[in-house]
Amino acid sequence: MKSWKQRVKVLKSETYTLYLAAKDPRVPWYAKALIFFVVAHTLSPVDLIPDFIPLLGYLDDLIIAPLGIAIAIKLIPPEILAECREKAQQMFAEDQPPNKWAAVVIITVWLLGALLLVAFLIRLIQSSLP
User: How many angstroms separate the Cα of 55 from the Cα of each of 50, 51, 69?
Assistant: First the structure.
């Protein structure tokens, strides 16, 4: 039986494999759409079942993400999946970060969202003052 560290390593590798496959023009559009849905659901702050509901809140995350990843893998042509897995394994073997720019973009988007929310709240407060 695999340890948690081994499972996490496999999950990271498979996730990066899906990322590479989604960028490949030979992958069918419906596989790319499913990959997008799984990633969006996993990273989205809005859940189908909110996390604060005991047990059920995390159940959708524990089912949808792995099931979506498994189905997406089945939809990718085997030769493309093998190429992407090889690239992903090489990247993790060399301990290279997948993409620092992706992290920068995500952090920037969150910061901009926070700034817009603060600006909105300031305007709302100012408009309610006499």
Answer: 10, 8, 22
- Torsion sign over Cα 90, 11, 32, 82: positive
- Residue 96 predicted with pLDDT over 90: no
Q: What is the DSSP string of 40-62?
A: HHHH-S--SS-TTSTTHHHHHHH
CB 27 within 8 A of CB 103: no
Distances (CA, A) of 48 to 69, 102, 112: 17, 26, 25
Q: What is residue 83's predicted lDDT score, i.e. its pLDDT?
A: 96
pTM above 0.70, yes or no: no
The pLDDT > 70 percentage for the chain reads 77
Q: At residue 83, what is the residue type?
A: E
CA separation for the pair 130, 42 (Å, rounded): 44
